[in-house]
Amino acid sequence: MLATVLRSGAAWTWALLLLQLLLAGPGGCLSRQELFPFGPEHGDLELEAGDDLVSPALELSTALHFFDRSDIDSVYVTTNGIIAMSEPPAKETHPGPFPPTFGAVAPFLADLDTTDGLGKVYYREDLSPSVTQLAAECVQRGFPEVSFKPSSAVVVTWESVAPYQGPSKDPTLEGKRNTFQSILASSDSSTYAIFLYPEDGLQFYTTFSKKEENQVPAVVAFSQGLVGLIWKSDGAYNIFANDRESIGNLAKSSNSGQQGVWVFEIGSPATASGVVPADTNLGLDDGAEYDDEDYDSATHLGQEDVVTTSFPHEAPRRGDSGTYNTPSDLSPRRMATERPLTPPTERTRSFQLPGERFPQQQPQVIDVDEVEETGIVFSYNTDSRQTCTNNRHQCSVHAQCRDLATGFCCYCVAGYTGNGRQCVAEGSPQRVNGKVKGRIFVGDSQVPIVFENTDLHSYVVMNHGRSYTAISTIPETVGYSLLPLAPIGGIIGWMFAVEQDGFKNGFSITGGEFTRQAEVTFVGHPDKLIIKQQFSGIDEHGHLTIDTELEGRVPQIAFGSSVHIEPYTELYHYSRQVITSSSTREYTVTEPERDGTAPSHSHTYQWRQTITFQECLHDDSLPVLPSTQQLSVDSVFVLYNQEERILRYALSNSIGPVRDGSPDALQNPCYIGSHGCDANAACRPGPGTQFTCECSIGFRGDGRTCYEVEKTRCQREREHLLGAADSQRPRPPGLFVPECDEHGHYAPTQCHGGTGYCWCVDRDGREVVGTRTRPGMRPPCLSTVTPPVHHGPPVPTAVIPLPPGTHLLFAQTGKIERLPLEGSTMTKSEAKALLHAPDKVIIGLAFDCVDKMVYWTDISQPAIGRASLHGGEPTTIIRQDLGSPEGIALDHLGRNIFWTDSHLDRIEVAKLDGTQRRVLFETDLVNPRGIVTDSVRGNLYWTDWNRDNPKIETSYMDGTNRRILVQDNLGLPNGLTFDAYSSQLCWVDAGTHRAECLKPGQPSRRKVLEGLQYPFAVTSFGKNLYYTDWKMNSVVAVDLAVSKETDSFHPHKQTRLYGITSALSQCPEGHNYCSVNNGGCTHLCLATPGSRTCRCPDNTLGVDCIERK
């Protein structure tokens, strides 16, 4: 072993030198001429020039193999160094956290740019012998023991592509270009990826991230994408390089013996749970020796001396917290000569092998810290103990993984039952699907009845322990004769039998993963039937799967007969990973009536079965299962439907102690099935005959009646993370578990319990850039998810006409309410809903005092809408090209609206009907929110609660003369209002908890009030400010004259309040240069102090528009 080599300082020096020589590889660096042929002259297609583009599907003549799939018949090529196995979603066309939701091969994942001819991206499928032979040679060098003969190769070349640089260009990247290539070579049984990085081909290692707004390193990686049809989660993924040093070494090093050439096995039985890199660079020819004059004798290191390590599949994502053991280069996963003896099982069904197969060893770790030529760090770990770190995926998503002395075990979390590898909600109905085939002789017949591919479906009511099994298309020549064999479906009853305290049913023990072989001997007949069944756990649909095979001879039962089976008991004997049972069954056959009588006969058969399964052997603290348990079966019903050719079995099952016929132990309604709990509820036995009903996980109700609540993505993520953390110890440092709201959606504000930092997330739980605040401060995040609509009488969506007078209008999720003002006093008894919009999340409000219209922003669609206060249906005026429209303001003189968009980080203007849109600002904005106008003077004001640099800015309405108005002593400036009568600009700050005002032309500002809870929006009327508060869910009045809160209004619906505006009974006096005849402008008239500017809307090709001042 390596330990024997590293016995002296000289040996250590020699090991360093040896690694340098190995990494150098033969033949020098790869030249551009040694790339696979590419370009239009070789049949390449060319990706359209631009940024973040995706090619049309490249249809393949030979299917690709990728991880555990073998059916990928098309791929997509992107500008950004990815070959995708399915079309990337629009929101993932630019690089983001790895892994993506789609399958991906990433030879150089970065934000690349081919705009204006900055490089080319070529791609094709090549079937020519010259190219496939070249690919085979590359693979052979990396995997010398593999005989690989590809029939096709996908060749993708990124030639002289540029880095995306963002708004502030880095002069050091000017003129830098990268050239690299990816080959996906496929045979009928496997696919290999070949990455080629020529000398001087990688001139930059980082690009500007649009999401993180800084330079981030490229990534070399593979991702399986999301897996699962119902519960989707990240599949396997491997990150091989994700920092400057390892990216820089791609052209200098190799894992295949030739510098700049990297080979990976990406699709075969060996890659179901991860890509396998070549590791030729670690091998030496037998007999190779290196002499050093400092050595007493020559030292030899052969293949057998090199110890390998497993690459962690759960590599860190960009932006994750916590500590990860990430290699800085392409770490080998296993020796090239090491091949799995058998294909690994499917990822969602695999589990650790029994403990004796992995003898405990002390880990031997050898680190080579610095390798002069390459700077590569290697770490070899010989610890063969399986741990949760790389095996968490082998546990159910509803289970914890716990490391133990000799391995790891899985445990279902509270509310779920199973063996940890497979877990289902307690009390929830279960479905079992499978196939049945048979070769059965009936009676004395010498000709067997043969059937193949027959469907089996079973439905189990867990809280009754009752199973209903149907086997379809059973020939009538054998259908009636199979009626006594209820145990064919009875095994399903045993799996979900009602458990008495201290006893376990089959699913709790095996997780529905086992093999069963049974033998039925009919007393008095030479007939015997063999039943073989394979249970394969839960499939991607959440159903248990079973395959059944029947072979042998059964006594003949006459057509039209019925069979009655008396209740019976059966003893199950348990030893390590084996269960056996035997019993004697009686059944009565009643033949069809003849001559007024229906003959009946009683018969008996003997039953023996053996069940083998895999259990976790590493936890000695688990309660010992009783060596014998008794299954009690009653209410047995069997039927063969001759017309439909369906065989049906129904049984009720409970598991408990061995009894001598005394039914006392089974009198609790939970055990005898008389509890009356909902089919989706668990029955919890109490003392004597007492019990309670409890709805299963995912259902709500009183237990007698339960209704389904579909799990959200947030809830599933929480379950996954909480299951991954060991409940017996504190959570690992850095582990972040998201919070869900009362509806199961991601709470818009997420905080890290360890660091105290908080940030906003979108509806998919992704962090909103620029929202992370320092510890102790919660950002004012907005939920984009509309609450669930409760079924009931429909609510009219038309506006209820507004009575005369001045009103406050404020937004709650799904509606706008009106609150009349009498003077400056809120007439709370007259507050009513103005508009119901249950499918919207209304944030900002603005009022047009001319046409008596209310305007709003809706972040759920997203959209901008309006409605007349005289009544009528609301209308949407803008629904395209919006991210998160929040603040909205209105110039009643110039007839324009202005709004902020915190997702697109811009401020726009449009006419009141939503036409003639123009972007005013799209730079130096991070979290713009509140916005107001001074219509008479032609000024615009807005807040930006950027966590690092909060500010209040101003400009003219045409976008000129932009400047910062307030920058010091701000926290989270949310709401903003301008009072036309007093010419005061006032704001509320959720970070400083203050309301402040200033006159824009004067430098001083005044603190109106301190100690606010969590103000969001503000408006003014008369002597008062009125603001909405998130903590109090109320509208609060503040008297500006005395700097005091004078009143508050709590709406009947206690949910978060958003925007607020004053609906004035008449417009303020004054005019601007856009008041008359649109200021003489053809399109947008934007007021400025003492003048106006005529502007054209964006995208006005072919429009007769004149701009002038």
Automatic annotation (TrEMBL):
| Residue stretches making up the Thyroglobulin type-1 domain | 711-781
Q: Which CDD domains match?
A: EGF_CA (cd00054), nidG2 (cd00255), TY (cd00191)
Question: Per its UniProt record, what SUPFAM superfamilies does this chain match?
Answer: GFP-like, Growth factor receptor domain, Thyroglobulin type-1 domain, YWTD domain
Query: Which residue range or ranges hold the Nidogen G2 beta-barrel domain?
Result: 428-665
Q: Which residues form the signal peptide?
A: 1-31
- In this chain the LDL-receptor class B repeats are located at 852-894, 895-937, 938-982
Q: Name one GO cellular component term.
A: basement membrane
SMART domains according to UniProt: EGF, G2F, LY, NIDO, TY
What's a single GO BP term from this record? canonical Wnt signaling pathway
UniProt cross-references to PROSITE patterns, sorted A to Z:
ASX_HYDROXYL, EGF_2, EGF_3, LDLRB, NIDO, NIDOGEN_G2, THYROGLOBULIN_1_1, THYROGLOBULIN_1_2
| Top-level taxon of origin | Eukaryota
Task: Name it.
Answer: Nidogen 1
Species the sequence originates in: Moschus moschiferus
